[in-house]
Amino acid sequence: MQSITTIDCGYIEPQFACAYLMREGDEALFVENNTAHAVPQLLAALAQQGLRPEQVRYLIITHVHLDHAAGSSALMRACPNATLLAHPRAAKHVIDPSKLVASARLVYGEEQFEKLYGSVEPVPRERVREMADEEELAFGSRTLRFLHTRGHANHHFCIWDSATQGVFTGDSFGLAYPKLQSKGLFIFPSTSPTDFDPQAARASIDRISALNPRVAYLTHFGPITEIKKAAENLKKQLDQSEALLNEITAMKDASESERQDHCLSRLRAIFSKLLQDAQITETNDVTKTLDLDIRLNAQGIVYAANKILQGKST
What we know:
The chain is α/β, with parallel strands linked by helices. It has 2 domains: 4-227, Metallo-beta-lactamase, Chain A, CATH 3.60.15; 233-313. Helix content is 43%, strand content 18%. The chain has helices at 39-48, 66-69, 72-78, 88-95, 98-108, 110-117, 198-210, 227-249, 256-277, 284-313; strands at residues 4-8, 18-24, 27-31, 56-60, 83-86, 128-130, 136-139, 142-148, 157-161, 166-170, 215-218, 222-224. The strands form 2 sheets. Strands 1-2-3-4-5-6 form a 6-stranded mixed sheet. The chain has a 6-stranded mixed sheet with strand order 7-8-9-10-11-12, with no helix packed on it. Helix 8 (227-249) packs antiparallel against helix 9.
């Protein structure tokens, strides 16, 4: 039986977001819970390993963004003996997701929210465990170590796995969609709202790289082994994102929409150049896959610029 299984959650489109099933003897755990709609796929992967939901010991979320954690309550109900492991800042939003859900419903609207995420209910406090930075957890013959990694989100951690010498990176080590890998590694960072911090993001990449992992298990999407190349590319792009952040911050007299439009236009040009350098043709399919991330990245950069401007004005 496989030790680590990659599960396509079917979020947005195929091979866009995944979860991981880790098996250790007659026990298992999931890393990332995606959404309530993905629970059948996760349980099917478990059954393919010859295991029952009662044998799931842990559910782990790298952070509380809804494409990683919205399925937590549904999956916890399905796995009655599981404990959910989360960053201390993420745990409170799993126990009481009301603010998170209300904010997302305002952004997406009721119909689109339900389509994307389904039902998001509270997880009982007694079934949630907060994991400190560098805290270790024995799971069968392997040791899992939890590393707090800011930059994408302040409530984000990664998980080092001693058995595979791999690290589950959430969104701290970039996004690499399989359909964009035909010409070699194509990876880019996530600068989405609301905690983008280029300095912290680079520090997180360095921290992951310093582990010298054999594999990085990305949530978007799947395992990669070109760790050094990925780190170099990500830090170069974070430099570009920081330069764009400074550019947007300098637009003090511009309106919110003007800053957003400018940032989005500049990011589209940056991604177009990245695709050109990678010899990837900008087909409609490629544009569709990248569009959401480009928009989210632009929103995150503008949000960070607004925080800086507000700080300067007070």
